[in-house]
Amino acid sequence: MGKVLAALISLAALALVITLLLMRGEKEGPPSPAAGGGTSEAGVTAPEPGGGETTGGGGGETRAPQPGGEGAVSIRAVFVGTPPAPARHSTGEFAEPCGAPAVEDRTLRVAAAGGVADVVVELLRDGVAVEPSPEPVPFGQQGCVFAQPVVVVTEGSTVLFTNSDGVEHNVRMTSIPNRLSGEARAVPPGGLPLTLARRDRIEVTCSLHAWMRAALVVTGTPYHALTAEDGAARLEGVPAGAWRIRVWHPSRDVSIEAPKEVVVPADGAAALEIRLSPR
Fold this sequence. Notes:
Radius of gyration: 28 Å
Order of helices and strands: HEEEHEEEEEEEEEEEEEEEEEE
Shape: globular
Oligomer: single chain
Mean pLDDT: 83
Strand content: 35-45%
Structural class: mainly beta
Low-confidence stretches: 17-48, 57-66
């Protein structure tokens, strides 16, 4: 009798332990996805068009600005080595309305003196406010190419796509931050306005003419520049002090070398040289 009673007590104790463990598991729930693993940051851009990029700094705060005063940044982008010859794309059956039997690829434009066009330079510092453009920013289609290979706008700006050709064009863009799903949108005679609220780099194409490609950069800083055909650009009215630098170019075939930061002197100008080379 004693052995039976002891066995029953043991079984009851085991059942109690199992019940307590189950109750504990229900309270704790499954492991949090954030516990051990990658983290995501709100507002980080969606997958972007291929291209070279370098960003100064890896986090932390940039040194405080010098008290008072504004300065400038003189930018020069140069190609080191021999740039690849630009490809040419046949316009095929569209040769007559496009005005040429072929168009030259303008993703990488290097001047005779070595200057590189279409390099995007952004100066970054915490707490800097940005305003949208007061007027729509033009983004034209002409001669069966995009008139500008790269266009830069600030967050919240409206871009106005226009078509100057005697042939139909559309615009295709994919941007998760700006809720663009890659749908082809026809460009009507009066133009196609699109407002872009969030920072991103977006590849712009025309689904009717496969060679038509450009890039649209939506930036979150008012201190940005796009290099001209000679590779030069200049930023004026920049608050004095240290700034992190982000540099990008749409070509997948280049590597970019640039300083991590630039210090803008009060009432003076800082020089910034950017070097691009073949990958």
